[in-house]
Amino acid sequence: MFRNQYDTDVTTWSPAGRLFQVEYAMEAVKQGSAAIGLRSKTHVVLACVNKSTSELSSHQKKIFKVDDHIGVAIAGLTADGRVLSRYLRNECINYSYTYESPLPIGRLVVQLADKAQVCTQRSWKRPYGVGLLVGGLDESGAHLYYNCPSGNYFEYEAFAIGSRSQAAKTYLERKFETFKDSSRDNLIKDALFALRETLQGEKLTSSVCTIAVVGVGEAFQILNQETVQGLINEFEIVGEEPPPADEAAPPEQGSGAESGSSAAEQGAAPMDI
Amino acid sequence: MNVSDSTPAMNNLMGSEADSQRTLYPYVTGTSVVGIKYKDGILLAADMGGSYGSTLRYKTVERLKSVGKHSIIGASGEISDFQEIMRNLDDLILYDNMWDDGNSFGPKEVHNYLTRMMYNRRNKFNPLWNSLVLGGVKNGQKYLGTVSMIGVHYEDNHVATGFGNHLARPLLRDEWHENLTFEEGVKLLEKCMRVLLYRDRSAVNKLQIAKITEEGVTISQPYALKTFWGFSAFQNPTAGAEGSW
To answer: What does the UniProt function comment say about this protein (chain B) (predicted)?
Structure first.
């Protein structure tokens, strides 16, 4: 994107009908580290890459519990993400207080989108520089939404945002049709695979990623490091073996070989795990 | 003249400026509502009387109303406040329907919303002078609760307001059970309403019964209960004291 004379103000249209400030805010999302979400009929898994600036510092928190039945993963300006998470938590708790019932996720994301839209139509404000993957439940089951700085929101079967998210999206596009009826554990495995795609050959360990799950009958929780490492080991070990002919071994091995070749196409070390 | 209320600092403690802006006492009132859970859902009963003090002034007041697809409400107390509550609830349901997203308010949500409404008004010393019964069925789950004008709320298998608590609840405690059929439920409610008719001076003999099940709401047409007054003591009431009535 190049600078031009219509990008100073969020309330200035360009002759082509664009609001550049809003588009620049979406760029900020693309610069953040990757966040991935996928859902089945009953569960949603959120996963994100958690790189710390130095060995001395702690990791940036990118996944937030919003309520027992809703969680959010962010990419972009994490400070904006924190503020919006607080808003989401507030909305959920106020609804629960009045109605003794969980706020349906579909209604929450609309409120969030409307809040984001306000910032695209006030000269004294700026758009939020964060994309949110909101995963949660309502009466009809599990849902995953993506909320943009523009104030748009979309529902997804699976999605990835942030830097190098295209690699994850490619993996998800290939596999998303299996997600609907996937089991909780297979959904998490698919999330880990997609996450690995964004690491472009770097080793996937539980210290660089965070995984969270929410489902029907399962409250939102961020999985602890040991559990995540255990799951990584489970599928990584299987991935290292030469792909056998038998069908008994589930998708892991098949996708292991495929992601290895796509990594090789991009010039990275093949299957460097 | 309460000096403390007229100083500027204390002026707004009791709600609005002039006393006529807040409810002090009710004018047109409905009497008891009785509700029970039965096998397929909930049954509510209430008569159609609107008393003006001790006068039984209005005899076709509908005190049972449906709220959305999943709930019914019965009100006793000030009728105009009930109309205000219905206006509020109808708006609530309307906005809920406008989402058109497959989610809808069940009886639990409506009950809690009502509780918040009643309690908040009470805190402002401007209550909605009603005792409400809220019942419904959603996804096979039966719900029956009550809220009073001060925000006291609870759920139970059978509830009542006003005199119903004193006259009907004891009957229900003895005779209610989990698997009442519709006919048994109605018979039980009629028994309660008959006792109330005999003993509550604000009761009138014109009642409705509301039923809610998973399928939906039905509110019956008004009808009257059979009563028996042929007691010997009533035959010659002034026998022992000529001239009295």
So the answer is: Non-catalytic component of the proteasome.
Question: What's the rounded Cα separation, in Å, for the pair A109 and A11?
Answer: 24
Q: What is the mean pLDDT of chain B?
A: 92
Q: Which of B48, B73, B71, B72 is nearest to B60 (CA)?
A: B48
pLDDT for res B237: 80
Q: Which of A138, A111, A159, A121 is nearest to A215 (CA)?
A: A138
ipTM of the complex: 0.86
Q: How distant, in Å, are the alpha carbons of A26, A161, B25 from that of A31?
A: 9, 9, 64
Contact A101 B99 (CB under 8 A): no
pLDDT digits (tens, 9 = 90+) for B36-69: 999 999 999 999 999 999 999 999 999 999 999 9
- Stretch 56-85 of chain A: residues touching chain B, C-beta under 8 Å: none
Q: Is residue B140 classed as helix, strand or coil in its secondary structure?
A: coil
pLDDT the model gives residue B203: 97
CA distance B36 to A96: 27
Residues of B serving a catalytic function are 23
The mean per-residue pLDDT over the stretch B91-96 comes to 97
Q: Report which residue type is found at A194.
A: A
Tell me the two tokens of residue B2: 């309460």
The whole-angstrom distance between B56's CA and the closest CA on chain A is 37
Backbone angles phi, psi at A19, to 5 degrees: -110, 105
User: Is A238 or A101 the better-scoring residue by pLDDT?
Assistant: A101
DSSP structural state of residue A33: P
For residue A101, list chain B residues with Cβ-Cβ distance below 8 A: 106, 108-109, 112
Residues 6+ apart with CB under 8 A from A39: A45, A135, A142, A143, A144, A156, A157, A158, A179, A187
Four-CA torsion B153, B159, B161, B163, nearest 10 degrees: -140
Map tokens 């510092």 to a residue. Answer: A57
The sign one gets for the Cα dihedral A132, A137, A142, A143 is negative
Burial of A130 (0-12, 13-18, 19+ CB in 10 A): buried
Among A193, A201, A141, A145, residue whose Cα is nearest residue A170: A193
When the pLDDT of each residue in chain A is averaged and rounded to a whole number, the result is 87
Cα–Cα distance measured from residue A79 to residue A126, given in angstroms and rounded to the nearest whole number: 14
C-alpha distance from A110 to closest chain B C-alpha (Å): 10
Q: Kindly tell me if the per-residue pLDDT of A238 is higher than 70.
A: no
The model's pTM: 0.85
pLDDT tens sequence across A162-216: 999 999 999 999 999 999 999 999 999 999 999 999 998 888 998 899 999 999 9
CB of A138 within 8 Å of a chain B CB? The answer is: yes
CA B217 from chain centre, in angstroms, equals 17
